[in-house]
């Protein structure tokens, strides 16, 4: 698990993500529910390929992602890496 | 919006759903994350066809659905109908 100092340093590369408890999270907004679902599927495919799965909440045109590493009860480099990859696919 | 009495009567046909605040919810469990995502997609397709969209939270092998009618700030017959249709596709 990253220390708070380490985490805050890593978060500089993820300005749209925020620390929430033992996780990092970001809300993505889309034009339609279909767009939300399509994004959730892209995130799901990525998560499977990395074998690291965020919590995905689809609320109509918003998708909230919450990333944490359960086995470490906190945020690790796996979460930082996944967040960076997700940001890349946001507007694919 | 349904009255609490009306809602409780309707819930008799939905024994695995529970009332939570101004909504009804149910958690579905699957074997794999892929199964969770596939179910979320089936629910999404159904929601689009009914133009009534639940909140869908995918947490690895669990999918939580929260149904409410925002315009009425509570549970309506649209939610009851959607819950029944979702139960039908759960094991498709």
**Outline of chain A:** globular
Radius of gyration of chain A (Å)? 13 Å
- Contiguous low-pLDDT stretches of chain A (5 residues minimum) are none
CATH homologous superfamily descriptor of chain A: Transcriptional coactivator/pterin dehydratase
- How much of the sequence of chain A is in beta strands? 15-25%
Q: Main attributes?
A:
homodimer, alpha+beta, globular, Gyrase A, domain 2, four-stranded antiparallel beta sheet, 92 residues
Could you describe the 3D structure shown?
The structure is a homodimer of 92-residue chains. Chain A is α+β, with helices and mostly antiparallel strands and 92 residues long. Chain A has one domain: Transcriptional coactivator/pterin dehydratase (Gyrase A, domain 2). Chain A is built from 3 helices and 4 strands. In chain A, α2 (33-50) crosses α3. The radius of gyration of chain A is 13 Å and the shape is globular. The interface between A and B is medium-sized, with 15 and 15 residues. β3 of chain A pairs antiparallel with β3 (55-59) of chain B, so a sheet runs across the interface.
Short description:
The structure is a homodimer of 92-residue chains. Chain A has 92 residues and is α+β, with helices and mostly antiparallel strands. Chain A has helices at 4-11, 33-50, 77-89, and strands spanning 18-20, 23-29, 55-59, 62-67.
